[in-house]
Design a protein that fits this description.
alpha/beta, 8-stranded parallel barrel, 10 helices, globular, binds phosphoenolpyruvate, binds manganese (II) ion
Length: 261
Amino acid sequence: MIGNSEIIKSKNKFANKKDLMLIAGPCAVESFDQLYEVANHIKSLGVEYLRAGAFKPRTSPYSFQGLGKEGLEILKKVGTLLDMKTVTEVTSEKNLELVAEYCDIVQIGARNMQNFELLKPVGKIKKPVILKRGMGNTIKEWLLAAEYILSQGNYDVILCERGIKTFETATRNTLDISSVPVVKDLSFLPVIVDPSHACGNKKYVEALALASVAAGANGIMVEVHPNARKAKSDAQQQIGLSEYATLVRKIKAVYSATNTF
Ligand code: PEP
Ligand code: MN
């Protein structure tokens, strides 16, 4: 397996980073103004990566599907204006070249974790990849999905835990916090956590984010919206700008408290 070999230690750009990777932004690009407002705020907090979906994989075909190419253009424009790196999802091989051209990190969503015909070409692009864990997949299946990308020569894979389906219904998914230390035990790949999709409720995002940092996550990806009640997707789980500012302060405190020994 490449994921637990020395190749990752020497070639994965994120494997040896000391700093916590902070990624934030709205679920979806909705307009230039919406994205710029969030980006400008998170940039002032020292956040390096702006996330926002242009191609949205929605459970219902009647829900907002994202702005597509226009969304990518807005994302790139905002990223360039504010000198931020951008993260966005690719949902199909058809759009892979376009998505890879417009962003700095390509995201594979939970629903595509085992879309092997998408993972193989993603292994050939020259951009880092965030591979989200499938909601019904084991850690082993997740690591094997990563191998589909690594084995094609793209070593810059970042795993992202985003919660799995369990019998619990109080939260959208159940954050499998134990996957963080387990993945670190089984591979050298960096692992980040997305508490927003894990719980599906903005009330719980902070607690899960802080627990993830304490558990050793290499980064935290959070959905942030300037006016979440009006969001076109995932309105219940996106936190506001000031809530995110507080969260960043607490994340930094937990990170330094747990990384000084
Ligand atoms: C997302 O990050 O926008 C997303 C759709 O998440 P997931 O694939 O984890 O559901
Ligand atoms: Mn979302």
